[in-house]
Amino acid sequence: MSAGVGRQARRGFSAGADRATVVARAGEMLLAGETVDVRRLAEECGVGRTTVYRWFGSRSGLLGEALWTLVDGAWSHARRTSPGAGPLHVRQVVATFLTSVRDSPPAASLMIDEPRLAVVSIMSPTGFVQRRAVARTEQLLHDHSHLPEDEVRAVAEIMTQVAMTYVWAQLLTGTSADLATPLAIIDRLLRQTR
Fold this sequence. Notes:
Distance between the termini: 64 Å
Order of helices and strands: HHHHHHHHHHH
Low-confidence stretches: 1-14
């Protein structure tokens, strides 16, 4: 047995871990406030560094996937635990989600340690995380609003851009994010759904 395989067994990873395992481990590293070193990550997961780059294209691609997994987990939790129905439920989901992001020490440290990732993946309307967040918001609006079909996508894009840009920008600059402003804007958008 090689030294690498023995090390993997002690850490709980099997040789030749799959793509999902690599993403999960990168997410754990982000949550722990650790720098995601692709060489170390690949070694721990029992895959080659070349394989990691083939799967994700770049370190930023890997971090975007890992970050999305964390963001999506927070979003799913907000959907499960938020009361109400209709537009009030939509507002509560967004408020719960934004509160969890704002109050997350790993999110704050990620903004400081990986500002380029924040701008490209999270805050850009065409970014990896932003695009997926729009899709989740669009589904939420389909399920809990009376918006005309042709307006749902536009409202989802505006809500996501306002909410995520506001909170992530506050984290990026190290200032406390007051959620009143983005939630007031979202309330105005949702009024047309009642």
